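== Fold encoding ==
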Amino acid sequence: MLTAPPCFLVPPPNKEEAAATHRRLLLHPEGDHLTLINVYNAYIQHNEDEAWCTTNYINAAALRLAVLIRAELLEVMQRIELPVSPPAFGCQDNSTNIKRALISGFFLKVAHDVDGSGNYLLLTHRHVAHLHPFSSYRCRRPQPGPPNWVLYHDFTISHDNCIRTVSEIHPHMLVELAPQYYLGNLPSSEGRDFLMELRQSLLPPGDPEEGGEEGAKARGEGPSDPRNQVSTDMCLIQ
């Protein structure tokens, strides 16, 4: 769904409220990334019906492409004999694991609200943007307050200065999963300082915080350390 074009269509001028009403039925409380999974699952449950897409102001072509991409990913996983298990979508553990996977891959696309009113500073660009009007955080009724820290997928400056496909994340998860070099190379900002302080607070007492093999030895990590063992968990494809 992230590779496919945006799934929500821009409605005609006299259909905005109707489109928003249909869109709210598909929103996920955990943010836009999980909303995309909701949309995909609903599309499959309706037998990939294009009429359903039209009624709900959904881009049918985008969902057809998403189906093809998912099938290709599943084929690759089976070809290289990765164990695959069905996702338990909807449970909290599954939602958390999805966010952890997203942060691991897109840690460069993080922003934080600088004033509590939805003005987001992009950590890697020092540019301020706001949430896209189709974001679940702006469509829900009653509308919740803007999340403090978010992971976003797209940023457009030329058209509407928005971050799109946004989900709330917890800073400690970013500190845990982002590479060590990431925080140290961010441009100076309050957000960077907060993350650096958070990382220091999470380090064990006396941790030398050195990289490489020597650092691992100094921290007592080695091949037998549980953190360095290969996970035996099955792969999930949503």
Q: What stands out?
A: The chain has ten helices and seven strands. Residues 106-205 form one domain. Confidence is low (pLDDT under 50) at residues 210-232.
